[in-house]
Amino acid sequence: MYDRLNVLETMLAQDARDPAGPHRNLLPLHYQLNQLEAFKNQTMHQAKKASPQIRVTLNESFVRLNKLIEDFDLHIATIAKHVLDLVRAGYPDVVVKLLKIAEMEGKADEKVRGCAFRPSRASGPKSTFIGYCYSFNEKSQDGCSIKVPVHAS
Questions:
Q1: Running DSSP on this structure, what letter comes out for residue 121?
Q2: Domain range holding 30?
Q3: Residue 139, strand partner residues
Q4: Which long-range contacts (CB under 8 A, 24 or more apart) does 61-69 make?
Q5: Considering the domain boundaries, does residue 142 fall inside one?
Q6: For burial by CB atoms within 10 Å, which of 111, 130, 141, 147 has the most?
Q7: Residues 101-113: what's their mean pLDDT?
């Protein structure tokens, strides 16, 4: 797991260097972090009946993963703030990737909650971005009205 985290930290650092850049690692990072988070959640669920000492040890072993997930969430929020810059720089595909991540996160929230996803009920940077996608209808600097379509599933 630690080798995998090394690779993911490097990928995130590469993408984070330029908020208005191509973000080639965005979807692979999201996928890998989801896989690791699912592993962590399953492990912690199985450890519910274990001794407190074992649960503490497990929590300590996932600190680095938790930090990387938090850093990725902040990275998503940073990218969301640069949507117009990304499009102007010729990277509209990054906006599509953000919307895809928002869609996947929304579906995951629906599964966990067992109900329809509502952006206002969620919290955190990814959820903020999802809500942003639902409500975004502002004027850009050049006066063009911008609407980001979000399809409810």
A1: G
A2: 2-135
A3: 145
A4: 64/2, 64/5, 65/1, 65/5, 65/36, 65/37, 65/40, 68/5, 68/8, 68/9, 68/12, 68/33, 69/33, 69/37
A5: no
A6: 130
A7: 85
Residue for token pair 């300590």: 60
User: What average pLDDT does the segment 89-113 reach?
Assistant: 89
DSSP state of 149: -
Whole-prediction pTM value? Answer: 0.71
Q: Of all residues in the chain, what percent carry a pLDDT higher than 90?
A: 62
Q: Does residue 16 lie in a domain region?
A: yes
**Domain presence at residue 144:** no
Residue 126 within a domain: yes
* Cα torsion through 106, 1, 73, 123, rounded to 10: 50
Q: How many CB atoms lie within 10 A of CB 133?
A: 20
Q: Which residues, at least 6 apart from 127, have a Cβ–Cβ distance to it below 8 Å?
A: 105, 109, 119
